[in-house]
């Protein structure tokens, strides 16, 4: 029995992307993207490199600017208005492939920085929240160390905790396990699975197909800047419709 | 277990090998000497040659120091005492000590003021240099410049205190306006200010264009060169006409847009307040205060500052001003706003393209032509401005290197957490960029400190100016070179080496990678 089906998905819309297009110079990276994400939904986006999957989720919190189309996050329309962008960013957490922890701050300071400065949480309270989430990702004992002293897997879990400290309603993961040693991938995936079980809305760009099968409600396959296929994981893996998807899956699962 | 292993794999470790100490030849002084001095034939020869030259040098220098004469009133007396033996004439340092340190015009009964200012400088700098000291000491650091000004230049204590008071008042006005006046109102006024600035610029360009047309017409069209000049002026005039209106609109919009929350009003209003306060309130207030409670020291003119004190004065002030200015220039150069970026690029490239000596000459001589004859623009202030601008341009480029070295991910992480530009810059970007830039900044700071001796060529009597001028031109101490310049070198070495050691210590403190 698939675990995902036990988790509830509400009717409320978390993210709505309509007819979104993006160009890098003359290169058309994202073409006519239409995507609606319900609250509590867990979506895995996969595809060959250069297919625009990272760019897609980076458009959602305006790390990349889209030129055409409409993105609505949590009821806020994403425009060039800095206030809207800041509002969306404080609601949407993000984890990066290379963690991007702040190396000059301790783990605890990494986690309390944004709550203190953006949410104006008192320092003491922010530290309590941070310790709560560090316990959740199972590294409270590292709180006073610096990121450089931690292993890759630990750093990525800190990065997840750092995002969670802002108590976001949506989490974006941009290949969170791609820079990790095989032994460490599991600890990060376990954290993400736990997060999914609590009903967090998640968009993950990842090649961890086991994770996709276990957690996702929907798998999206992208190629050449377009959404080629999307389906429930069982159906997606066992019975891919498009030829491009079949080729991709045979290459990624074939060995 | 072992049975299965024996059947399926070739080897399985059952026990761990404990670590053991290294052999004797791998540790201690013997290893060091062998590796560093006698690691081969070539290095052995080099070591022996070096030992020979060091020994020769020591044999020559040691008697020079040992026989040194410390008490004499002139070089001739020194030579008489030495009576043909090799020996230094350190008596010049004793005789002219005050001049070397304080300059020859500073009133001798005011030397204690300089010493107190110097000791307090150490106290004031400590909390800024060592993060482990209590942060409350920074209040003294902020207060120190005003106290030091009074101690060194003399006059009434109320003068610097009134300046401090007016600065605080300006900050309060800024706070009041940005907290009390509603955002909508500030936005409207900001739009008006932006509009006026834009119209003003457009008008200036328009006048310039008219002037160019006038010049073009008066050049006439006779002769080839005149024709070319006529054409050039006309092209420039048309260019200015065509661009003045859009440029004005653009500038106005850019000014409005960069202060969307109406912050422009707070800035303009507090600047206006500062201008009025400093031109009309400063003198009456401090004079009134001084007549009630007179706290005065004998006033000393800037022209009378000299000796190593002048180098320290210029070095400290210019370094502490040029680092913040350099940071602003570096950030400005990275700005997406073309106006700010353009101004910063032009400033940096201009200053870097001009020698410091030229700037000092401009400060000393040229400015006098441009300023009204009765204006009394302090010479040291002019020199401080020029040296500060000069080193700020270099520091800006060093910091730009630090900014460029930061991975893009740091900016993205800060953005994705919802930090705004100011917060991201102050909390994430600058601490890391400055850490990377420490060696470069220290490089500029040490260079700047040594460059302060250049003021001797615009007839200010700093340490080098003192030696070249009053000391070597005096009848008693002509042709004394090694002793005085050696002393100068020693003073500069002590300061510069301390700066360098501090920066290395700081780098170790800030190293959080621990790999």
What is the strand and helix layout of this fold?
The complex is a heterodimer of chains A (255) and B (515).
Chain A: E1 13-24, E2 27-38, E3 42-46, H1 53-60, E4 68-73, E5 76-77, H2 82-91, E6 92-95, H3 107-117, H4 123-136, H5 152-164, E7 170-174, H6 182-197, E8 201-205, H7 209-215, E9 218-223, E10 226-231, H8 233-238, H9 243-253
Parallel strand pairs in A: 3-8, 3-9, 6-7, 7-8
Antiparallel strand pairs in A: 1-2, 1-4, 4-5, 9-10
Helix pairs in contact in A: 3-4, 3-5, 4-5, 5-6
Chain B: H1 2-8, H2 28-36, H3 41-66, H4 75-82, H5 91-95, H6 97-102, H7 111-129, H8 138-153, E1 155-156, H9 158-180, H10 183-219, H11 224-258, H12 263-292, E2 296-297, H13 307-333, H14 338-352, H15 356-370, H16 379-405, H17 408-416, H18 421-451, H19 463-471, H20 482-510
Antiparallel strand pairs in B: 1-2
Helix pairs in contact in B: 7-8, 8-9, 9-12, 10-11, 10-12, 13-14, 13-16, 13-18, 13-19, 14-16, 15-16, 16-18, 17-18, 18-20
Using the coordinates shown, work out and report the CATH topology of the domain at 303-515 in chain B: MetI-like fold
* Count of distinct strands of chain A: 10
How many helices of chain A? The count is 9
Strand order of the largest sheet of chain B: 1-2
Output the CATH topology of the domain at 13-101 and 172-253 in chain A. Answer: Rossmann fold
CATH class of the domain at 303-515 in chain B: Mainly Alpha
How do the helices and strands follow one another from N- to C-terminus of chain A? EEEHEEHEHHHEHEHEEHH
